């Protein structure tokens, strides 16, 4: 069975309007895969050589049958050799295959799954990656690292500017007021994110912005009338 050893594609920092929204835009296409019969030591060597931490398992019909992580392989290796002599270890490990330690019944997502839905699935299931399916076949892999990248881009992590963290009312039109206030002072929004807060004080929002082309003090004055509180503002 032949395998595609395509490494992660080079990722170019997108503009504010090009932030990844669907899994197909974020995933690693044609990820490295292994066969169920591969010995555990070989799978570990492949992970270390390629600097990856999980491998989808594909059978000889091209079907996704499992997934194995570096932790799975290390645990299998350690638990299998604890009572063996140093001469017996290589022989036994060579007999332990990926199929014996892999996770079956793999949780997957579709190529058109929104990025935030993939993040929710990972968080709810406590898993670090999701094979991506298209037309009944695995076409990619999305990991927590990919989601961290999307989060960073969403907040303008690669772009210099003024970073604002503010608390806003939970009211219709709030975002329009904020963006209009920034536009009025010729500011350019390069990153934007929200977080809802619900507690004894009621419902409200926290907004994080990355803004360019406007001085810090001018931006503060523009935002004060349209937010509850500016909690932090800094150049970054």
Brief characterization of the structure:
The chain is built from nine helices and ten strands. It has 236 residues and is of the alpha+beta class. Strand 8 and strand 9 form a beta hairpin.
3D architecture notes:
With 236 residues, the chain is of the alpha+beta class. The chain folds into two domains: 16-153, CBS-domain, CATH 3.10.580.10; 158-235, 2-Layer Sandwich (Alpha-Beta Plaits), CATH 3.30.70.260. Helix content is 33%, strand content 28%. It has helices spanning 23-26, 40-50, 70-80, 89-95, 98-101, 115-125, 144-154, 174-184, 216-223, and strands at residues 28-29, 54-58, 64-69, 109-110, 129-134, 137-143, 162-169, 188-199, 202-212, 229-235. Strands 1-6-5-4 form a four-stranded mixed beta sheet. Strands 8-9-7-10 form a four-stranded antiparallel beta sheet, covered by helices on one side. The radius of gyration is 24 Å and the shape is elongated. The chain starts with 22 loop residues before the first helix and ends with a strand. The relative contact order is 0.14.
């Amino acid at each position: 069975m032949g395998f595609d050893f395509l490494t992660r594609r080079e990722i170019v920092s997108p503009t504010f309007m090009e932030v990844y929204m669907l899994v197909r835009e974020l995933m690693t296409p044609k990820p490295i895969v292994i066969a169920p019969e591969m010995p555990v030591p070989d799978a570990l060597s492949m992970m270390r050589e390629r600097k990856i931490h999980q491998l989808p398992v594909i059978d000889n019909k091209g079907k996704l049958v499992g997934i194995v992580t570096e932790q799975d392989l290390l645990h299998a290796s350690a638990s299998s050799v604890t009572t063996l002599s140093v001469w017996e270890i290589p022989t036994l490990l060579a007999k332990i295959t990926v199929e014996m330690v892999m996770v079956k019944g793999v949780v997957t997502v579709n190529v058109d799954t929104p990025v935030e839905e993939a993040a929710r699935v990972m968080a709810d299931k406590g898993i670090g990656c999701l094979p991506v399916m298209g037309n009944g076949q695995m076409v990619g892999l999305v990991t927590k690292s990919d989601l961290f990248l999307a989060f960073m881009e969403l907040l303008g992590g690669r772009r210099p500017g003024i970073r604002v963290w503010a608390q806003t009312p939970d009211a219709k039109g709030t975002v329009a007021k904020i963006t209009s206030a920034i536009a009025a002072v010729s500011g350019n929004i390069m990153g934007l994110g929200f977080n809802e807060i619900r507690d004894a004080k009621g419902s409200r929002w926290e907004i994080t912005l990355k803004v360019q082309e406007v001085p810090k003090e001018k931006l503060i004055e523009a935002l004060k009338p349209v937010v509850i509180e500016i909690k932090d503002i800094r150049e970054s």
